[in-house]
């Protein structure tokens, strides 16, 4: 009787393996070489990745908005808290410039510089973005 149980279990295992192979293994009629080349091409395909950072349109809108604020603060009239607002706006502007550089694969070192070197780096980054076709300033309206 034990031989009968072992034989039945073996028959069930082999049947299950064949059914699994029929369902999970690619069409057995396809030559092995074609299956291997298809598998290798799937493996070589570059993985699709999500873009880093915000969309470029959002970056451009933020830069234009911050530039407009900086232009508004450029007026020599004293305002309460003006220095703090200018410093905060410049910091935000530099961060958005860095986002634009990341999106367009432009090298920047705004976070590593200070003083006059930082101002020069900001100008260099702005020029590099303009050269890449990035529009930094909003178009001026007639009459303004």
Question: What is the radius of gyration?
Answer: 31 Å
Overall mean pLDDT stands at 78
Helix content: 55-70%
* Structural class computed from helices and strand pairing: mainly alpha
Describe this structure in words.
This protein is elongated. The C terminus is likely disordered. The chain has five helices and no strands. The protein starts with a helix and ends in a 13-residue tail after the last helix. Helix content is 65%, strand content 0%. It is an all-alpha fold and 144 residues long.
In a nutshell, what does this entry contain?
The protein has 144 residues and is mostly helical. The protein has helices at 2-24, 32-44, 56-73, 82-104, 115-131.
Features of the shown structure:
65% helix; mainly alpha; disordered C terminus
Give the helices and strands, then pairings.
Blueprint: H1 2-24, H2 32-44, H3 56-73, H4 82-104, H5 115-131
Helix pairs in contact: 3-4, 4-5
């Amino acid at each position: 009787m034990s031989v009968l149980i072992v034989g039945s279990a073996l028959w069930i295992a082999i049947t299950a393996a064949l059914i699994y192979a029929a369902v999970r293994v690619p069409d057995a009629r396809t030559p092995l070489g074609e299956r291997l080349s298809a598998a290798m091409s799937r493996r070589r395909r570059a993985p699709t990745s999500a873009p880093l950072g915000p969309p470029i349109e959002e970056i451009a809108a933020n830069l234009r908005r911050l530039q407009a604020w900086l232009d508004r603060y450029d007026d020599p009239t004293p305002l309460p808290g003006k220095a703090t607002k200018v410093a905060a706006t410049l910091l935000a502007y530099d961060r958005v410039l860095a986002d634009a550089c990341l999106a367009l694969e432009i090298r920047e070192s705004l976070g590593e510089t200070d003083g006059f070197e930082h101002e020069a780096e900001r100008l260099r980054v702005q020029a590099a973005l303009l050269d890449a076709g990035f529009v930094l300033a909003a178009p001026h309206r007639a009459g303004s």
